[in-house]
Specification:
This protein has 363 residues and is an alpha+beta fold. It folds into 2 domains: 3-132, Creatinase/prolidase N-terminal domain (Creatine Amidinohydrolase, Chain A, domain 1, 3-Layer(aba) Sandwich); 138-362, Alpha-Beta Complex (Creatine Amidinohydrolase), CATH 3.90.230.10. The chain is 36% helix and 21% strand. It is built from 10 helices and 19 strands. It has helices spanning 3-24, 34-41, 66-72, 85-95, 109-117, 128-133, 138-158, 168-181, 244-263, 270-283; strands spanning 28-31, 49-53, 57-61, 77-80, 100-104, 121-125, 192-195, 216-221, 224-225, 228-229, 232-238, 295-297, 304-308, 321-324, 327-330, 334-337, 340-343, 350-351, 361-362. It has a 6-stranded mixed beta sheet with strand order 4-3-2-1-5-6, sandwiched between helices. Helix 7 packs across helix 8 (168-181) and helix 9 packs antiparallel against helix 10. The protein is elongated and about 75 Å long. It starts with a helix and ends with a strand. The relative contact order is 0.11.
């Protein structure tokens, strides 16, 4: 984005914050979650916080990030912390004439107590920035799509190595290397390569186990671009005997995946979307083997709102981006998960992932 575009984007986000503060009767808002700081400012360092009131918005960081902040941030005053952070917050609140300071619900209890002991009236505000992050703008979508492209390209590069005799660990290492070669500065999460019995664990750790005939092989990985992530899962079957039930499980998960995506629309509740998938898998006789949520939002965090689960209370809206990832996991037999990333549009969802989903039996 150009400098003027960045300023415009950041000022738009700040205006949204100010509108909420006015409605809640709060004089100012403190942002301490570093991911939310990045969302609001574009700052990629590891130390910083924001203070916003009706007239001013200041980004604070320490001396280590002075030059970096000046290069990355537009539309914000920049101030370098001197001394303890709570003192900086207190002094700024007084300078801003803030009588009631909104804080993120994620603030640590220790920091909260330090501020209250100094006479600052605090009001926890739950998920203010997180709510804004649910709807992706054009800039964010560009980066998410790039993260998907990098992830899929890396996977295509290493796919020929998925065969009997290779170790889970070797596939994971090759995939990580391929992701980094494509520009991923970070790996969103530990890559999962789970074969045979290991595949019945949704978050299995990579082992030295070699892929064998008849194994289900679950591979879950993601890419990165500009701090935004992707998250994809595909499952394969190594050719072998006694695979009929595994093929049946795969077919059930694939149908659940497609049914969920076909049901996505602006206005549907996340809980309802989850129940469509869960009820389908239950009717197929595998309800007890699907224990996690149907999907999750993705952006600056791998797992963020909206949460597509039986406990979800969110209404799906146009502009949201999230995964659809039903699965069936049977101890002693193996597991299947198929995960895509979708973007909600007013008329229908757009499937952002493009890797094939039909069962591939590898010789």
């Amino acid at each position: 984005m150009t400098g003027s575009s960045l300023i415009s984007r950041h000022l738009s986000l700040i205006t949204k914050i100010r509108d909420v503060l006015a409605n809640k009767g709060i004089d100012g808002f403190l942002v301490t979650d570093i991911t939310n700081v990045r969302y609001m400012t574009g700052f990629t360092g590891s130390s910083g916080f924001l203070m916003i009131n009706e007239k001013r918005n200041i980004f604070f960081t320490d001396f280590r990030y002075k030059e970096q902040a000046e290069k990355e941030i537009a539309g914000w005053e920049i101030s370098i912390e001197k001394g303890e952070r709570q003192k900086t917050v207190i002094n700024t609140a007084r300078t801003f004439n803030i009588n009631r300071l909104g804080v993120e619900a994620s603030i640590t209890y220790e920091f909260y107590k330090k501020l209250t002991r100094k006479g600052i009236r605090l009001k926890p505000v739950k998920s203010l920035v997180e709510e804004m992050r649910k709807i992706k703008d054009e800039h964010e979508m560009t980066l998410i799509k790039k993260a998907i492209t990098r992830a899929e390209s890396a996977f295509r590069d290493i796919k020929p190595y998925i065969k009997a005799g290779i170790k889970e660990k070797e596939i994971a290492l090759r995939l990580e290397e391929a992701l980094k070669k494509r520009g991923c500065k970070t790996i969103p999460f530990d890559i999962i390569v789970a074969a045979g019995r290991n595949s019945s664990m949704p978050h299995a750790k990579v082992t030295e186990r070699k892929l064998k005939a008849g194994d289900l092989v679950v591979i879950d990985w993601g890419g990165e671009a500009g701090g935004y992530f992707s998250d994809i899962t595909r499952t394969f079957l190594i050719k072998g005997g006694n695979i009929d039930r595994k093929c049946e499980i795969y077919s059930t998960v694939l149908k659940a995946n497609m049914k969920a995506i076909a049901s996505i629309r602006d206005g549907i509740k996340s809980k309802r979307l989850d129940s469509i998938v869960r009820d389908f898998i239950k009717k197929a006789g595998y309800g007890e083997y699907f224990g996690h949520g149907t999907g999750h939002g993705i952006g600056l965090s791998v797992h963020e709102a909206p949460h597509i689960s039986w406990t979800g209370s969110e209404v799906i809206r146009s502009g949201m981006v999230f995964t659809i990832e039903p699965g069936i996991y049977i101890t002693g037999l193996g597991g299947v998960r198929i995960e895509d990333i979708v973007m909600v549009k007013p008329d229908c969802p757009i499937i952002l992932t493009s890797l094939p989903k039909e069962l591939e039996i590898i010789n």
